[in-house]
């Protein structure tokens, strides 16, 4: 150990003379725990391990059919190492060397350590980083940890530690593969629950020789699991398998990953139509909710029809799920109905039929892996989009969720996150046509003074050089992990404050394939919400949101922190039932009717008063529309009023009603204005000669309303303005 390092990395020829070479080093020879790397530059293969008896372990490896083809060993030792530390460093080396891609690892993917121990984060992670830098210095590895962490090869590597529910799912899948009475497994799991990772893990497991598994650290609790693995390898020694990925871009990405993994091949990653070319022992389908039927397929119609003909099927009466069923002995389908986004996707009832079959096993993945906000963020997003009445303010603990009122500021934030972490991308819903597809000089998305283009490539867009300056869509991001997703909600999605529901505008939705052949407005509504939920679950570290529609933006602002260059408006809390500090909230037309004893709607909502407002039972709230009072009351403001019970009104802002009023903003018989009057005073009495209702507007086109004589007979003051709530 030298140069201030807490460890040593020594290189030796991998042969029977190793014992003589290391016998003078107590940390390499004398039963001290260490980590080692076997490698060969010519065949570009390596093996990573740990041991407390290096000589015996190397002797055993030299007898192994493939490991003895490796020519060099690097021993990594330290006086700080203990068994827990070496197991952890071994696991990290396997993960990051697999992601580095210089070597294809001979390691199996079972038994990677994932346990806490003393000083794991404070000491040993830093030691690992120093070991990694030293390995780069010596040419054993090539890329930085940060670069690898952002790579698809690392994210979709089969060398992962599975969660408890992933392990339980793996166990059940393995049992189905051994059960001759079972054929299908339908694995439910939302975005980010590790469906793709589990699929690739299982694929690698089934394509690894039994001799390459490291069962040495498995205890009694894992005994049944080890038995299952051995039974699987006996039943499927060399299985013919396919990983079916319906989306072409993601399929090409996973094929690149398979190319770098020992025992796997990019040819194993196929599209659904390719399954019709032959029979398979086992087929795994990632994103099976995107399997297609013969509806709005565009250029894919021809491929679909040819595949159907190979199967002896009538194209209009078949689908890709049926092909997979017929071409596989076992089918593992990873499914999330809320990621179905267009009419060509196979309908849910087809999967429901599959579940009715006794040969189908069903299981669920629940743990959220992608977003650091975890299940709290996922639940919040589902309430915000699908169940607005249940939404509540989201306070992220470890997730960067922000709502922007200016697109330019969100773009600046994304550019900064790209510099800090990489993989920060703009994504939008289909609210703009793709004009730049035919003419690259044109812009597609224009908001205020911002001009943007859709993604210029459909293949692996998130990793393309120009991605940071473009806007991706659902088709170029579904299945991918980002560090930050900045989502633009277009004008095809709206919020109705009266019904408290999210609505969609079909005319503003520009994915022709996504709206042709939809059976109902509700179906299109579900597709659009599924798109936004899916893209809002791409960001590991955070999600930024900009909303074009003002009503939807105001709805989101009630629950998400707003980033604004302007002073942020306070939010107000609505309630369907009265509470101790709530006041009735009326549309101003309803309020006028209410206080004049006329019939009003039974559906009254309530506003919970902020803590700094003193409550009394004669308060009510109304929304004020128009600009006649915009010096005091901005258009659209929700204002607090006190029911008028007598006394002078002169100089006060009042809500009044009269059949002779025609308000300039909305033409109604009610208005909100500053009150003034002229009185005729007698010896013992007085009466109004005329009442003047004055606008307080920056627009000088508004004129006072004057009432006199008979106009005063049905004039009524309803309430006195107290303050603007929002």
From TrEMBL:
InterPro entries hit by this protein: GIY-YIG_endonuc, LexA/Signal_pep-like_sf, P-loop_NTPase, Peptidase_S24_S26A/B/C, SLFN_3-like_DNA/RNA_helicase
SUPFAM superfamilies: LexA/Signal peptidase, P-loop containing nucleoside triphosphate hydrolases
Protein name (Swiss-Prot/TrEMBL): DUF2075 domain-containing protein
Superkingdom to which the source organism belongs: Bacteria
CDD domains: GIY-YIG_COG3410
Domain GIY-YIG positions: 31-105
Short name of any one Pfam family annotated for the protein: SLFN-g3_helicase
């Amino acid at each position: 150990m030298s140069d201030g390092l807490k460890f040593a990395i020594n290189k030796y020829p991998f042969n029977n003379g190793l014992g003589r070479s290391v016998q003078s080093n107590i940390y390499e020879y004398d039963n001290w725990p260490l980590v080692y790397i076997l490698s060969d530059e010519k065949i570009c293969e390596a093996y990573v391990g740990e041991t407390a008896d290096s000589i015996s372990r190397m002797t055993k490896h030299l007898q192994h059919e493939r490991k003895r083809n490796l020519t060099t060993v690097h021993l990594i030792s330290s006086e700080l190492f203990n068994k827990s530390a070496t197991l952890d460093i071994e696991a990290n080396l396997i993960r990051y060397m697999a992601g580095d891609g210089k070597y294809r690892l001979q390691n199996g993917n079972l038994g990677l350590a994932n346990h806490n121990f003393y000083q794991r984060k404070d000491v040993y992670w830093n030691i690992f980083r120093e070991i990694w830098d030293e390995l780069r210095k010596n040419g054993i590895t090539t890329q930085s940890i940060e670069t690898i962490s952002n790579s698809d090869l690392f994210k979709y590597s089969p060398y992962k530690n599975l969660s408890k529910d992933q392990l339980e799912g793996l166990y059940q899948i393995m049992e189905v593969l051994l059960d001759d009475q079972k054929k299908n497994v339908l694995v439910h799991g939302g975005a980010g629950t590790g469906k793709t990772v589990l699929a690739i893990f299982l694929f690698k497991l089934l394509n690894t020789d039994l001799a390459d598994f490291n069962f040495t650290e498995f205890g009694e609790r894992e005994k049944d699991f080890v038995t299952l693995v051995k039974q699987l390898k006996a039943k499927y020694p060399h299985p013919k398998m396919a990983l079916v990925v319906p989306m072409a871009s993601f399929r090409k990405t996973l094929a690149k990953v398979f190319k770098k993994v020992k025992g796997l091949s990019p040819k194993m990653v196929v599209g659904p139509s390719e399954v019709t070319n032959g029979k398979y022992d086992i087929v795994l389908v990632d994103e099976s909710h995107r399997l297609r039927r013969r509806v709005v397929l565009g250029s894919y119609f021809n491929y679909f029809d040819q595949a159907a003909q190979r199967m002896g099927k009538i194209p209009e009466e078949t689908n890709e799920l049926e092909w997979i069923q017929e071409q596989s002995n076992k089918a593992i389908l990873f499914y999330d109905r809320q990621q179905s986004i267009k009419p060509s996707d196979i309908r849910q009832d087809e999967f429901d039929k599959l579940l009715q079959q006794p040969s189908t096993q069903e299981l669920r993945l629940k743990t959220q892996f992608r977003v650091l906000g975890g299940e709290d963020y996922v639940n919040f997003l589902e309430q915000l989009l699908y169940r607005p009445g249940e939404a509540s303010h989201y306070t992220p603990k470890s997730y960067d969720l922000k709502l922007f009122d200016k697109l330019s500021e969100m773009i600046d934030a994304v550019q900064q996150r790209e510099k800090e972490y990489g993989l920060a991308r703009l994504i939008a819903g289909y609210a703009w046509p793709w004009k730049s597809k035919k003419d690259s000089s044109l812009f597609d998305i224009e908001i205020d003074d911002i001009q943007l283009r859709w993604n210029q490539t459909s293949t692996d867009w998130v990793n393309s050089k120009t991605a940071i300056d473009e806007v991706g869509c659902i088709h170029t991001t579904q299945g991918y992990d980002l560090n930050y997703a900045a989502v633009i909600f277009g004008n095809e999605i709206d919020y109705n404050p009266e019904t408290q529901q999210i609505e969609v505008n079909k005319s503003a939705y520009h994915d022709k394939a996504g709206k042709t052949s939809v059976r109902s407005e509700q179906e299109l509504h579900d597709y659009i919400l599924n798109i936004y939920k899916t893209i809002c679950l791409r960001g590991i570290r955070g999600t930024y949101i900009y909303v074009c529609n003002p009503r939807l933006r105001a709805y989101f602002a009630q629950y998400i922190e707003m980033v604004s260059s302007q002073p942020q408006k306070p939010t107000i809390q609505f309630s369907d039932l009265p509470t101790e500090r709530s006041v009735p909230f009326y549309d101003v037309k309803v309020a006028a009717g209410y206080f004049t004893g006329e019939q009003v709607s039974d559906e009254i909502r309530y506003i919970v008063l902020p803590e700094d407002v003193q409550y009394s039972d004669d308060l009510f709230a109304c929304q004020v529309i128009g600009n006649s009072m915009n010096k005091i009351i901005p258009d659209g403001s929700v204002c607090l009023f006190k029911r008028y019970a007598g006394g002078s009104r002169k100089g006060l802002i009042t809500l009044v009603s009269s059949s002779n009023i025609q308000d300039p903003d909305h033409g109604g018989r009610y208005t909100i204005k500053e009150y003034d009057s002229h009185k005729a005073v007698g010896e013992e009495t007085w009466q109004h000669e005329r009442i003047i209702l004055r606008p307080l507007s920056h627009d000088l086109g508004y004129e006072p309303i004057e009432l006199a004589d008979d106009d005063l007979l049905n004039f009524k003051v309803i309430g006195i303005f107290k303050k603007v709530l929002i």
